[in-house]
Design brief:
The complex is a heterodimer of chains A (167) and B (496). Chain A has helices spanning 20-46, 51-79, 117-122, 145-161; strands at residues 5-10, 15-16, 81-84, 88-94, 97-104, 108-114, 124-131, 138-144. With 167 residues, chain A is α+β, with helices and mostly antiparallel strands. Chain A folds into two domains: 17-78; 80-161, Pleckstrin-homology domain (PH domain)/Phosphotyrosine-binding domain (PTB) (PH-domain like, Roll). A four-stranded antiparallel sheet of chain A has the order 2-3-4-5. In chain A, strands 6-7-8 form a three-stranded antiparallel sheet. Chain A is elongated, with a radius of gyration of 21 Å. In chain B, strands 7-6-5-11-10-9-8 form a seven-stranded antiparallel sheet, with helices on both faces. Chain B has a six-stranded antiparallel sheet with strand order 14-13-12-17-16-15. Chain B has a four-stranded antiparallel sheet with strand order 1-2-3-4. Classes of the chains: A alpha+beta (167), B alpha+beta (496). Chains A and B meet through strand 1, helix 2, strand 4 and strand 5 of A and strand 18, strand 19, helix 15 and strand 21 of B.
């Protein structure tokens, strides 16, 4: 006789990140690959004795970099999601290794938005929610700047209204 | 209280201590010159170094005494110090989490105590606790009473206050602390120091010791090694006993609830007080190499205590038998999460570890093969040596798998993992300040997931690795009711 068991699982958070985030991830991957391949390539071209050592890493970087560039941005876009409720912040991130993070509003210490140069270029922002744990910070990347600002304001107001000692 | 609280100096007896210290550090040099008739020369270096270090240390200490002031106002503990660079440090009294007293031998002889006031500083960010080196024993007592219990000291009531003894030193614990590789290091250190000092007096200690061993005979060398090892064990035993002399772990009532207090030490005494309000759990770790002996370290999980020092304040028991650790843990927590039966993790977790072991061995063999092909010095059989690691890697995988476990016990969630040091951590549900579920694609295929509880206390996070994927969210959700509830959905799924 087969019996059905109730299995609890986390549902995905409600909101996707911005479509532009794909471009941001791609740009970052492109820059990273370019720097790595450029550096190794320069070394390979200039330092002849080091060639047996630089050859394999250079080859690996030249092959894996573009693959990473093509695969991860759309993959990340499918995974990255976020939502805030009256009681908690919830975000999913990653690609090969996925993470679902939850932090209760009552334990939030700071809410920051940051915008790096590439993010500025694309009108994106990162929302960082920190708790008293050194390992509990939630980073929500690829948000529209306006949305991130609004979310930060909302969370700050909620945090102030929610009792809690944050530890 | 009055508006202006006067600044106080450290204890005057420090000056005397420093004077005696300078004289003592000059003594070996005086002895060498006066009694043994040593001539200035290279042989005098060791005693000269001892003398210079001793005198400058003592002089610096005296200057520090001169320039240090502290005071305790209604809201802050303040300290000003520094000769060239003036430093001002203040700690809010409501943030004070521990007041520890310790004393080196010279402090004890002069009736002084070193008081360390901890306020949940992040040692990673380079913040140190506020230390007062040194005040008199009475002042130390008063400081502790005033800062932890928010009232002046009342010696009679403090002495009469009922305390519960949770553990005291057992002589047999010595055996858990002396048989390790440090014995050789300790022996080497002590012998080298003795040799170094002896050269000043014209003795060649190393030479005469080495002369006892016949270097052509293996048994003689073996015996020599054994003798050094035995000497090292002796050194470790003495150092363990002096450090943990009259060790006691007691629970003492305070104004804000109770305090966990350890006292220990023969020459250098140490007393650490931990506010029970900040206790969030307890972790017992069992190092792999001594698992057969049942050796365990016991640490409390609290907020605001530094974890990263050689003898962290979170350690509430000397290294000893795991049986004792568990029973003390149960009495400290007043609950039994650390004796609860843990749920084993699925076989797939073993498969994952075996996979990693094979992969790591393969990579090591591949790298060695590449090295053998490119570097002449690396012999051709090197990749085979890499493959030779496979049995060890597989054994490690099995050990790591067997270490896994998790459960809930009352208000505690309990997770166990670790290869080199198997750590069982029991964390109060209320201490969880966030959850993280992690799953790689491979874990997903194997039906596994890792659950990490973030907390402000202890290590900052406690992870249950490779739980069954179907249970992971439920485990986290039930451990801290309400937090995950809005994000959980129920799947109807038939069990295999």
């Amino acid at each position: 006789m087969t019996r059905t068991a109730a299995v609890l699982r986390l549902r995905p958070p409600r909101h996707r990140v911005e479509r532009r985030a794909v471009g941001w991830w791609a740009l970052r991957a492109l820059l990273g690959t370019a720097i790595l391949v450029g550096g190794l390539g320069t070394g390979y071209a200039l330092a002849e004795p080091a060639r047996p050592w630089l050859g394999p890493p250079l080859l690996a970087a030249a092959l894996l970099g573009p693959a990473y560039l093509l695969v991860t941005p759309p993959w990340r876009y499918r995974v990255h999601r976020w939502e805030t409720t009256e009681a908690a912040v919830y975000a999913a991130s990653g690609w090969f290794v996925r993470e679902w993070r939850v932090a209760p509003i009552s334990r939030i210490q700071t809410v920051d938005t940051t915008r790096g140069p590439l993010e500025q270029l694309l009108g994106l922002a990162t929302l960082a929610v920190t708790t008293a744990s050194a390992h509990g910070t939630i980073h929500i990347v690829g948000l529209d700047q306006q949305v991130a600002r609004e979310a930060a304001r909302h969370l700050t107001a909620l945090t102030e209204a929610t009792p809690g000692d944050a530890t | 209280m009055t508006a202006e609280v006067p600044w106080r100096r450290l204890d005057t007896r420090m000056i005397w201590v420093d004077a005696v210290r300078s004289l003592l550090s000059l003594a070996p040099a005086g002895l060498a010159v006066g009694v043994f008739g040593a001539r200035p020369g290279p042989a005098m270096w060791p005693v000269a170094v001892v003398a210079v270090v001793g005198v400058t240390g003592a002089a610096g200490d005296a200057l520090r005494w001169l320039k240090t002031r502290y005071r305790i106002t209604d809201e802050h503990v303040e300290r000003r110090t520094g000769l060239l660079v003036r430093r001002y440090r203040s700690i809010r009294r409501d943030r004070i989490r521990s007041v520890d007293t310790s004393a080196r031998l010279r402090h004890r002889l002069a009736g002084l105590r070193l008081v360390t006031i901890g306020a949940g500083q992040h040692s990673a960010a380079g913040e140190a606790a506020l230390a007062l080196d040194a005040v008199s024993r009475e002042t130390a007592q008063w400081l502790r009473q005033a800062l932890l219990y928010d009232r002046p000291a009342q010696p009679e009531t403090a002495a009469a206050s009922p305390e519960t003894e949770l553990a005291r030193l057992d002589w047999r614990w010595v055996f858990y602390n002396v048989f390790n590789v440090w014995a050789y290091l300790a022996a080497a250190g002590v012998l080298w120091g003795a040799h170094w000092l002896a050269t000043t007096f014209g003795l060649d200690l190393a030479g005469s010791l080495a002369g006892l061993v016949d270097w052509r005979q293996p048994w003689s060398v073996g015996l020599g090694l054994l003798a050094v090892g035995a000497f090292g064990v002796g050194v470790l035993a003495v150092s363990f006993l002096t450090e943990h002399w009259r060790f006691r772990l007691v629970r003492v009532p305070g104004e804000h609830g109770t305090v966990l207090r350890t006292t220990q030490g023969l020459l250098k005494t140490r007393e650490v007080n931990r506010d029970d309000d900040r206790l969030r759990g307890l972790a017992i770790s069992e190092p792999l190499l001594w698992r057969w002996l049942g050796v365990a370290d016991t640490n409390v999980i609290t907020t605001g205590l530094s974890m990263w020092s050689l003898s962290p304040a979170s350690t509430i028991l000397p290294r000893g038998p795991v049986r004792v650790a568990r029973s003390v843990a149960t009495r400290v927590l007043g609950a039994e999460p650390l004796v609860a039966t843990l749920r084993r993790h699925p076989r797939a977790a073993l498969r994952r570890r075996v996979g990693w072991a094979v992969l790591a061995t393969g990579v090591a063999a591949g790298l060695l093969g590449w090295l053998a092909a490119t570097v002449d010095a690396v012999p051709g059989w090197a990749p085979l040596a890499g493959l030779g690691l496979l049995p060890m890697a597989l054994a490690a995988a099995a050990v790591a798998y067997r270490a896994l476990g998790h459960t809930r016990s009352g208000d505690y969630l309990v997770v166990r993992s670790g290869l080199v040091s198997r750590t069982t951590a029991a964390l109060q549900s209320r201490a969880v300040v966030g959850w993280c579920l992690r799953q790689s694609l491979l874990q997903r295929r194997l039906g596994l997931a890792t659950v990490v509880a973030a907390t402000a206390a202890g290590d900052g996070q406690y992870a249950g690795y490779d739980l069954p994927a179907a249970e992971a969210a439920g485990f986290a959700g039930r451990a801290v009711p309400g937090l995950l509830a809005p994000f959980l959905v129920t799947d109807q799924e038939s069990p295999q």
